[in-house]
Records
---
Amino acid sequence: MSSSSSSSSSSASKDRYQTVDVTRDGRAIAAKGSKIEFKAPTGDTLSAGYQARYQDSQVFSPRKIFLQDAGRSMLLLTPDRRSTLVKYDTEYGKNIGEVSLKIADTLDYPIDSITTPSKFSELQQSPVVQAVGVSGNSLFDVRWDSRSPGDVLALSEDQRFVKASRNFRFTSVATTGAGHVVAGSNDGHIRLFTRKNDELEASGPMVSPWKRPKTDLGQLADKVTGVDTTRDGTWVVWTTDKYIAVVNTTFKTGGHVASGFEKAMGKEKPSALICKLSDQDLEAMGITEDDVHFTTATFDQGTYMGDDNILEQNIVTSTGPFMVRWKFRHIKNDYGKTRDRPGVRRAEVVRQKEEITARKFTYDKDEVVAALESDLSFMKLSGEEDDQEAEEEESPHASRVLKFNAGDDDYEEEEEDDEDDEEFEP
């Protein structure tokens, strides 16, 4: 991985970058304190930006930004009014609506996590806000037309799935391209829900009530802090504090291949492949396992392969100033093999000059935008090493491991035998 950073003259400022999103053409939109900034892929500042304000003119620092309506508007989650969604006109920096979600007959339930109703739906033009989120023990749908009067949006029972448990909390949520939902929770469970685009895009309120999850991948007790899925829903990754876990959601039943999002997996429920930093990685990074606190691991945005197909190639997370990548094809190669210990191939690690506070993959490019405390870093994931590796992998018995070199951001190459280097098939 190689990286370039934008210049920053306010590194001593108490404000820091806390969230970032990326437009279809690769521009970064980031919040540094209350200021919304725009950066080109070169790192150059595109405009003076503007401050995030409620409609009563009070300034706030967004805890999350995500674009919608093909980038023409964006939704902001707020730090103090945690049940409130704020909609901004991206270009003009105008607050064009805000609404408090009334979940379970109260306004006191915070929005813990929220995402688009289907993967990449943010690239489509739609003035009506649609989203899927989690709050406490509730998983919910949002359909909000900011042009309508009213500052409270009450969610009906059909718009919520509630897990009745005193100490249970949903922690994270993600969607597939078809609109299916994966949700993680504090008890280590991963639940797969059937949802479809035609249900989400129907006019008026959500027309399809939430049902019980088709599959519960609960198998590890550690709290889930983040989830993601490939566009086609075939693979799911979830994050805990010390490791990430990957599963394939497809299985054979009745002579055909089914998805755990649409049919209960039952006895075909898979074992997760655990990926974590090795002792060698930790030593090279100059940290211990106690210092590792992974942020949500995500797949890249994928390369368009025609016929509406996307090929994801990377899984990336971070801890402190370290960006950590596993190549997805290596994980797929190892997935079906017998495993007697956690971990797959060595991770590729790049150290940034500051803590990584947020990140977002660009579209159709092998690049990730990392928000540091006082800067933005545009990082290319591929380079000469990857090109050489692709050539060497023409031999099925050789694979390369990229090893962190503590002296700089270079990597040493190792050869290892891999007699069974074939991708997993259900």
---
Amino acid sequence: MRFSVRCLEKRTVALKPHVPFALHDPGRVPLAPLPVEATYDTDAIKQNLAMMLRIRRMETLSDQSYKLKKIRGFCHLYIGQEAIPVGMENVLNWQDPIVTGYRDHGWHIVRGGTPFEVFAEMFGRAGGCSKGKGGSMHMYNVKNNFYGGNGIVGAQVPLGAGLAWRFAIENPTAPKNVAVTFYGDGAANQGQIFEAMNIAALQKIPVIFACENNQFGMGTSKKRASYETDFYKRGHYIPGIKVDGMNMLAVQEGTRWAKEHCLAGKGPVVLEFDSYRYMGHSMSDPDSAYRSKSDIQAVRNERDCIAQIKNFLVSEGVMTTDEMEKLDKQIKKEVDQELIKAEQSPPTPMSELYTDIVLGEQYSHRTCQGTVWNTA
């Protein structure tokens, strides 16, 4: 589902995020002031809420399906972090490439995918976005410039810099697009991230290095894993901005700041989203050894991104509580139907076993029963 660009009424409001904006200025290029206001469209923000509800329902059903053993292997959920893709897509367009790690379900549907494609992929069905062969960690939609879904920690960051390099080559002083490459606080110490940052700074590549800081790398607190926990400062010679990742409008305006910086030909920027995941790192994480249920509930009560946007819409007179309850029920019904459709869809056929490996070449596949030859 693509957010509508039709404008009914635009309003400007003061930004008051729970986590204030912060700026890292290396002093190498002039920087714009930090955002203090947000502009929203009354029709589009309703669609924003609908998308956040859609992601949460999809992830809740994924949790249930995994526990029922309908999903095998790895499964990383996005519950609590829905404001990040929704807020960013208010500023980005589908010509701005996105690449992320393995917590990728939400990004797939904001980039034009469907919950059916996500469910089918995890169920190993032919209708999955990667033909049921990639699973939870490998959602993909090249048509809309979404490049995954990558399972190796931090490996997607150089890919994102590469996706943006084309724009710097085409127009170094005013690139037409940016790329966004995501990583988590747990991946922030990977050497390849700093190598990508160095090249991006040298070549003035319009890439946003987006760190989704959900406070824990697997079961390890950021304070135990990183000496410098202000991840927006980790680019050193690259400007950085810290944003409340659980406030949708703050995400929107922080993204606007970062994108405008890149499009001005000033090179890359580090964008840290301070957020929190309510679920374990993955479905195999018991999530009880390193934090308590009361810790999670405290964040839900104080910062939940969906509760925040609902309260905002009521206070602005955009929607009533009854209208939001009706929308919530409608979204749940739609996503539930997509789950059923995915469960009933045909499995990926065995003929797909040898496809999408090598293009136009004959190759062998060694098995316990001998060598199998196949022509792609």
